[in-house]
What does this fold into?
Amino acid sequence: MLPKILVCGDGNFSFSLAVGRLQQDGTVSSMEILNNLIGKKGPFDWTCTSFDDRAELLGKYPECEKILPAIERCDGFQVQHGVNAWELDVSFPKQKFDVILWNHPHLGTEDFNLHRFLLTHFMDSARGHLNPGGKIILSVLRGQAGRWSVTASAEKLGLVLDASQSFLPSMYPGYETRRNRTGGSFQNSHTQHHTGDALLSVTLRFEDPKNGGKQFSSSSTKTTLDDEEKSMASIPEKKMRRKEFVCKECGKDFAKSQGLFTHTRQVHQLKKYGDEWTVEGKQLKCDQCEPTKETTYHDEEALWQHKIAMHTLDSRRKTVKM
It folds into this structure.
């Protein structure tokens, strides 16, 4: 039986297509790339997923019209939409995987506390869906592992760092890193402000000692990442950017045209946030909070973040200490 790989949150599925082509190629050099990434010997059985449903995905990433059929033509590959990486029980109630992988997770906002929270709950969800000896793989930009306290969060869950290595997008021809919220690339000047002068990535591989994984982290790898986490802790979290694109419907402004496009489609065309959405009145309320709670939110993104932090993960917050 082939090792089962679950790819979470693949944006426009360009990574899935890239690894599909490598596996289809099947040469020693192509398989070496995959084996080195996964930490196991291929070929593999891949389940490639997106957070968006198919209609949302095609609206955000038109290139998926060609990418998705190309993936499905690759042997050993299947595609699934609407998969929440931090609630895998919903989409895979009984399924287990040998590797659960998430490349460059990003919520489309430079909120580092929110990303720490996100990845802690992703790892908590993922560890419950691993076969014995399974691995959780995260690829993040240089500096994000430290900013988001990835290794510290993993340790609180009892996970052990198996390996850390450079992630080279050039090894996966056609792969693009995209923001989930807007569809735009997050490899921009704003991200560079937080991650350093070069947009280098690192892949972290974790195991669960209680599920057949190694018992101790590599001391040299762990020391390097611990030092990074300490050094990144003092970097300012946000730097305001001038916003040039304004919605004609409600006046909300955006730094990029893609953000305006996504907002217009989701808010005003698809009305995903209801008819009462407003910027000026700041009257967005959470329909999951107690009636006595008076907090309102200034836009759909702020409300979305609140629901992630306070409701979507509420059941897990009781068992995971941040």
